[in-house]
Amino acid sequence: MSANSGQTYGQHLPDQVEKISGLYDAQLELLADVRDLHKERAALEREYAAKLQLLAKKAADKKAKKMPALVLGNEPTKAWDDNTLHKSTLDKAYTQLITAMTDASQDHVNLADALNDKVIEPLKATERKHEESKRKEMQYYQKLLSDRDRVYSDRMKSKQKYDEECQEVETYRQKQERSADDRHAERAARQYEQQQVDMLNSKNSYLISIAVANKVKSKFYAEDLPALEDEFQDLQSRLLTSFVEILKQAQDIQLQNLDALRSHLTATEAALDAVSPQADQDLFIDYNVAPFAPPPDWTFEPSSVHYDLGEMSVEPAPKVYLQNRLSRCRAKIEELDVVLNSKRREAEQLKKLVAAYSSDTTLGNVNEVLDNYLDAQHELTFYTTSGVVLSAESETISAALQGDEGAQSPHSFKSSSFSIPTTCAYCKSSIWGLSKQGKTCKACGISVHSKCELKIPADCTGTRHHGRGHGASDSVSSISRSSSVISRGESLAPSATSSAEGVTPTPSSFAHTAHVADEQGPTARVLFDFTPTSPFELAVSAESIVHVLEEDDGSGWVKVADESGAKGLVPASYIEVVDGTPAPNSSTSSLSSGTHQTSGEYVRGLYSYKAQGPDEIDVEGGKLIRLTEGPNGGRNYADGWWEGVDASGKKGIFPSNYVEAA
Fold this sequence. Notes:
Layout: H1 9-12, H2 17-46, H3 50-72, H4 82-86, H5 89-103, H6 109-178, H7 185-257, H8 262-273, H9 277-286, H10 316-359, H11 366-401, E1 413-423, E2 430-441, E3 447-449, E4 479-482, H12 497-500, E5 523-526, E6 545-550, E7 557-561, E8 567-571, E9 575-579, H13 586-592, E10 598-605, E11 624-628, E12 641-645, E13 651-655, E14 659-661
Antiparallel strand pairs: 1-2, 1-4, 2-3, 5-6, 5-9, 6-7, 7-8, 10-11, 10-14, 11-12, 12-13
Helix pairs in contact: 2-3, 2-6, 2-7, 3-5, 5-8, 6-7, 7-8, 7-10, 7-11, 10-11
């Protein structure tokens, strides 16, 4: 009885999730009413048939009050009368049910016990299950709204930022005019020119946010909302199907115990058999169709204080920003495509499982498989939204650049902190601070402000300058507290780093692992005791052994790790390298010896999964996998990914929703 044909909510009721949710609430209330109905009836059956008439009357009153909302919704758009309600197959079935109960004047305790075990409890379980499903769907709907509104808000923030930059341009222009004849004229001119560049960058960001918002809006109304409404329709169909099956069971019990009422029960069963979710949904759609038009696309709005046109700025400085942003965007798209393909295959496989479980109930609980399918479908929706955002950004920038994508040697920046002032290779001003105020290229060593990262051309030489200075200005750099690992962001699309380094992304590369190990460098011996004076430094004792994580970059400090795993900075003159070969870590030693530490816990494959990368292993239905142990192994590896050893002895990670405890 699922909505496989005929009209669909997503196609015929655009942007009416709240109204459809109200119908679902009415259906759930119906389950509660019918469950209460049978519960009270079981008690009344023990107290003689006389009270059964009172129960039937109460049911009829509830039906009279709630059936309009149940059949037509809370606010139908067309006029209706009682004859309209009678068109509903559900109304007919419920009416026949109450009639049969009115005719049933006698019963006994055995029937009451059977009703409690085979009707009341299943209805309660079905009600709880669908209330939870409805709650998840509404949470998903709110998340869709939140994501959409966030994109809308980003557009407004970009607009506000653009207006502010335009105002700053005007301010600097006035300063330049006032200082035209004094000794500050050159400085004022330079500030005015820099502010113009910042204004143009803000304008480009604003235009990009407009394109992104339009794409997200289009996807929201053309794909996400219809898909959500269709999910509601399918859940409602399944709810009514379960409801009818339980009531038919109740009728079977009555037929077995009350042959005298067979004629009435047969009529009730026939009415229940005639319940058609699709027919009732068509009726609901017919009386709730309302005019709808999607919101118009956004367009560029010039600032009130600065005349401008709605075109991307491709002047030299803004063009570099766009080229870098395009390169980063394409790298994210490349990695996201792999995840999207994997998620699509996963959703398609789960969809087939839902169909198989629906047609053959002996396979297992179809509700559990359906939950997995809906979760996978929702996750795929958010991944595709990320793809729309990235595609809109890439297309907008590519159209503006018209093939001029600049140099193709991007810098490999990492967040850095600075113990002494360091000159930014782009804006030539100082970088200073111990809280990751800037970026440093791991290849050529230039340093820039975080805000200047995308402004510098992608012309990395791949080699560092000798001496203490590095960067285009050959300024003195003292990067003393730089992170050794580029942290992965929490967004669905990964950074461009992995693409630039030639690493093929896999679905598991999007898993947020709880730990990222530093690469150990040469072994060194501590010459003198050192007591730290800041939280960035590490206490070491003379003659102890440490591992160098980051060598001295000219600042006089090195980052090391002691035997306990603690990391921090120590003066470069306090240590002496004794072995230039990096010390192998525990995981490397374990792999080289061909053995793996396992927890002794096994899981069994539910579905087949083909490894998508060298760090993954295959999952086969029915085959066992032994989980590894440790704080970062087994179930602790990452959200949605576990680590284990297969039957061949290969160690790797696999999706956790493809297995069950053995």
